[in-house]
């Protein structure tokens, strides 16, 4: 029987985070902090958001491709995906790293290229909502440990591999669907990569198919703008889409920022996941690390990570930025707060 099935047979979801399943580095020895990267200030406005001399600390390493971080306020810990390894991990400032769920996606013998979970978030009830590459769906983890599929098809066709998501305060789920999770591209049933909305009634609406490879996604603080990053070397861009009263968008977005200059220089990474601070600035992963972009599209600075960087989220008291960068999880203190803190 699968490890996750064994766990939920004896404990409920609310206690999963306390299980010492695969704690790493728990010898109790006090280790010297590992510092990486640097902060590049490109505009004076960055000073209000982060100190350019702030240190970027490595919290834990050893992952194949870390992704989808989300801070769990009720428990005071971080969850994140290791997509190829088909796991959701947790990191707590009190207990360090541990495995939270395995498998986090596909549970059969022969999985996809990226069989595990990717983007993670929580709904208004604090339940974990997951982009499941391996099963090509979005599911909600219930308090008893069961998984409820929220979206797996559009017009009767299976999604490619839902990648990232954000939830509106009204409960609507916005998500992207590139094909990165599929090992065999002939399995695709949808011949484009869409950005979708899953309404609270379960209805799936295609918002746009203009992007070749939509990836990271976020909402502005007033929830009137939807941001989407494109992980596509010919056009490594971040677009903004105005949300209509019915929750839909126009097909063609407004270009917010194009990171082609950094991509052509060979800076590691492509536009990927993102989060938004309380003032509306995007903290968006891309070439070099994390790009800090104002709501008007001005690049204020970059957190240079030295490795391809997948995603980021605010946590702890809202001023700490957690960063998933290749094989490691890092954090850096900011002078702003994330949305919802």
CATH class: Mainly Beta
Q: Globular, elongated, flat, extended or rod-shaped: what is the shape?
A: globular
Round the Cα radius of gyration to an integer and report it.
19 Å
pLDDT < 50 runs, ≥5 residues? 1-28
- Tally of DSSP helical segments: 3
Examine the secondary-structure arrangement and name the CATH architecture. Answer: 6 Propeller
Q: Give the full name of the CATH homologous superfamily.
A: TolB, C-terminal domain
Question: Into how many domains do the coordinates divide?
Answer: 1
CATH topology: Neuraminidase
The strand order across the widest sheet is 1-3-28-27-26
| Estimated structural class | mainly beta
Largest sheet: 5 strands, antiparallel
C-alpha end-to-end distance: 40 Å
Strand content: 35-45%
Structural account:
With 341 residues, the protein is mostly beta strands. The protein has a single domain (36-333), classed as 6 Propeller (Neuraminidase), CATH 2.120.10.30. The protein is built from three helices and 28 strands. A five-stranded antiparallel sheet has the order 1-3-28-27-26, with no helix packed on it. It has a five-stranded antiparallel sheet with strand order 2-25-24-23-22, with no helix packed on it.
């Amino acid at each position: 029987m699968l490890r996750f099935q064994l766990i939920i047979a004896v404990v409920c979801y609310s206690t999963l985070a306390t299980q010492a399943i695969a704690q790493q580095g728990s010898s109790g020895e006090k280790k010297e902090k590992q510092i990486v990267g640097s902060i590049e200030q490109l505009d004076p406005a960055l000073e209000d958001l982060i100190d350019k001399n702030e240190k970027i600390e490595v919290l834990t390493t050893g992952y194949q491709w870390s992704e989808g971080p989300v801070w769990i306020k009720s428990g005071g810990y971080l969850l994140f995906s290791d997509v190829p390894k088909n796991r959701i991990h947790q990191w707590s400032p009190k207990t360090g790293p541990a495995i939270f769920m395995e498998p986090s996606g596909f549970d059969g013998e022969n999985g996809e290229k990226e069989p595990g979970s990717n983007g993670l978030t929580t709904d208004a009830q604090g339940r974990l909502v997951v982009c499941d590459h391996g099963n090509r769906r979005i599911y909600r983890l219930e308090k008893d440990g069961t998984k409820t599929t929220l979206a797996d098809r559009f017009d009767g066709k299976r999604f490619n591999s839902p990648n990232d998501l954000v939830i509106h305060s009204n409960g609507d789920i916005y998500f992207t669907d590139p094909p990165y999770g599929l090992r065999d591209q002939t399995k695709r049933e949808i011949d484009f990569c869409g950005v979708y909305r899953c309404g609270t009634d379960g209805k799936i609406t295609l918002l746009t198919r203009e992007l070749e490879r939509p990836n990271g996604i976020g909402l502005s603080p007033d929830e009137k703008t939807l941001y989407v990053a494109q992980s596509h070397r010919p056009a490594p861009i971040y677009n903004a889409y105005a949300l209509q009263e019915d929750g839909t968008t126009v097909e063609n977005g407004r270009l917010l920022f194009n990171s082609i200059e950094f991509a052509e220089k060979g800076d590691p990474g492509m536009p990927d996941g993102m989060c938004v601070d309380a003032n509306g600035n995007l903290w968006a992963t891309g070439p070099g690390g994390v790009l800090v972009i104002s709501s008007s599209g001005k690049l204020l600075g970059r957190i240079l990570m030295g490795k391809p960087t997948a995603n980021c989220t605010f946590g702890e008291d809202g001023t700490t930025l957690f960063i998933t960068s290749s094989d490691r999880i890092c954090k850096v203190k900011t002078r702003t707060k994330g949305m919802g803190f």
